[in-house]
């Protein structure tokens, strides 16, 4: 549904983790989060059941497990060129050719919420513009969303 609140809810949920310390593989707001942890917890906060697969590799050229995860019906692929325009979209970016990183868009410029290792914290800040988007999804858990 175009006008559902799922993205707004995801963005609000992610905002709660701004300021949480960065921890590689971290899955707890108390002890630290990485980018996948931030996204997982934000999704779980708004009722998503399930984890982004443990054992994913953010440094794998083929990120098959991650790609498989986003084939779930709650995730709808969207145009990467307009992904930053709306708050609450999920983006996968490439800080370098071998690495992927996840963020939740803020709907302002290139801003997004993500666990940023460079500042050791979850931030809402402009993403480096040399981190191209390689995938973008809209999360929607509305009952009518499947098959859209
Ligand atoms: Zn929805």
TrEMBL record:
This is NlpC/P60 domain-containing protein. It comes from Sphingorhabdus lutea.
């Amino acid at each position: 549904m175009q006008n559902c609140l799922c993205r707004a809810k995801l963005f609000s949920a992610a905002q709660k983790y701004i300021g949480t310390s960065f921890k590689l593989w971290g899955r707890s707001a108390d002890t630290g989060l990485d980018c996948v942890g931030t996204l997982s917890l934000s999704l779980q906060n708004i009722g998503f059941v399930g984890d982004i697969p443990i054992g994913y590799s953010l440094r794998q050229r083929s990120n098959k497990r991650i790609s498989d995860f986003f084939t779930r019906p709650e995730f709808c692929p969207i145009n990467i060129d307009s992904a930053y325009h709306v708050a609450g979209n999920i983006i996968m970016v490439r800080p370098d050719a071998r690495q992927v990183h996840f963020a939740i868009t803020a709907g302002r410029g290139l801003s997004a919420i993500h666990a940023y290792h460079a500042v050791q914290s979850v931030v809402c800040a402009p993403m480096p513009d040399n981190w191209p988007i390689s995938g973008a999804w809209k999360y929607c858990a509305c009952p009518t969303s499947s098959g859209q």
